[in-house]
Specification:
Length: 335
């Protein structure tokens, strides 16, 4: 979403992130906007990467024509490999601002609405509501979901995550699944870059929604619900009553789990950044590949951000053809 800050008539691009405790501003704007450091604190991104950052105060943040005053914002220095500035280069609208209004997110229309009064719920007969808890100085909403008959607490409704459901691996044994999958993964990045993870994926019943959905159990210990699930709904956030309401917009479609993903390396090769633990091809996390679908990264992308926004096209076929460092050609099923 776009916002103007500190009286400058210049729209800046921000990620609207209910999962971020504090707003963020790109460090490259500190001098242009005369932003002074007010404090120093530790900050953790969605992958558990922790940095010590400077905190400033945005005297005015204007969304549409509405000003929000004196918003704390961390000065973020994005990791070189972070995709966040490719999506919105100037920063993050976090929950310390979000708590000051009521919100409606229409994923189908790609519209965000806000008001000083709670929104009336469209199609209330189909609505599913959850009370949420949040910290005193912010509004990162933590809800309780019933998954496979068990109540799971402390799941952050996270509009800054493009994933689906993620739970800590510490609770994985409590859920049984007929065909669990295990992945070695370094494909999910926060503002401070990637972190290596081991994911166990189980397709489980979401009792409140009468549907099944893949649940990732992560060694990084986070519990969240991201846009891969939320995109099927209109999301309402009543910050007075602390309720999240989801109104279905379309049928929930479970996408097959991708067995392999890759990322460009600096030497114009590819690196395996997510791979099934049980695959027969023998590739490992971090392996170098010379070509994917007979092409090098420079054949497909102008730069890293071009890759971030368009890499999904690599996986639009049933199989992916890779050329290993030893020049072996392997055809690998995507799902």
């Amino acid at each position: 979403m776009q916002a103007e800050i500190n009286g400058k008539d210049k729209p800046l691009d921000f990620i609207f992130d209910t999962g971020a405790f504090n707003s963020k501003i790109n460090h490259t704007l500190m001098e242009e906007y005369n932003l002074e450091t007010k404090a120093i604190k530790e900050n953790e991104d969605s992958n558990g990467n922790v940095k010590v950052i400077e905190v400033t105060q945005l005297e005015k943040v204007v969304l549409g024509k509405t000003p929000f005053s004196k918003i704390g914002a961390g000065k973020v220095v994005y990791a070189e490999e972070s995709p966040s500035p490719c999506i919105a280069e100037h920063g993050i609208i976090g929950a310390n601002l979000i708590k000051l209004a009521h919100w409606k997110i229409d994923y189908r229309k790609q519209m965000i609405y806000f008001s000083d009064e709670p929104f009336s719920i469209d199609n209330p007969s189909t609505a599913i509501s959850f009370d949420y808890d949040s910290p005193a100085l912010s509004d990162t909403p933590k809800v309780e979901f019933k998954i496979a008959g068990r109540n799971v607490e402390n799941l952050i409704i996270d509009t800054g995550s493009n994933g689906g459901f993620r739970l800590p691996v510490s609770v994985e044994k409590a859920f049984t699944s007929t065909e669990p999958l295990t992945f070695y993964d370094c494909s999910v990045s926060g503002i401070y870059g990637f972190n290596t993870d081991t994911l166990v994926v189980k397709t489980l019943q979401l009792n409140d929604f009468n549907t099944s959905f893949p649940i990732e159990f992560s060694a990084l210990g986070k519990g969240l619900i991201g846009n891969e699930f939320l995109k099927y709904f209109v999301l309402y956030m009543d910050t007075d009553e602390q309720t999240i309401t989801l109104v279905p917009q379309s049928e929930i479609i479970v996408q097959p789990t991708r067995q392999l993903s890759v990322i460009p390396a600096k030497d114009n090769t590819w690196l395996v950044n997510s791979v099934s633990a049980n695959a027969s091809h023998g590739l490992k996390l971090g392996d170098t590949l010379l070509k994917v679908n007979h092409q090098k990264p420079s054949d497909l992308y102008q730069d890293y951000c071009d890759y971030v926004m368009n890499n999904y096209k690599l996986y639009n076929t049933d199989t992916i053809t890779i050329e290993t460092k030893s020049r072996e050609i392997i055809n690998i099923p995507i799902h």
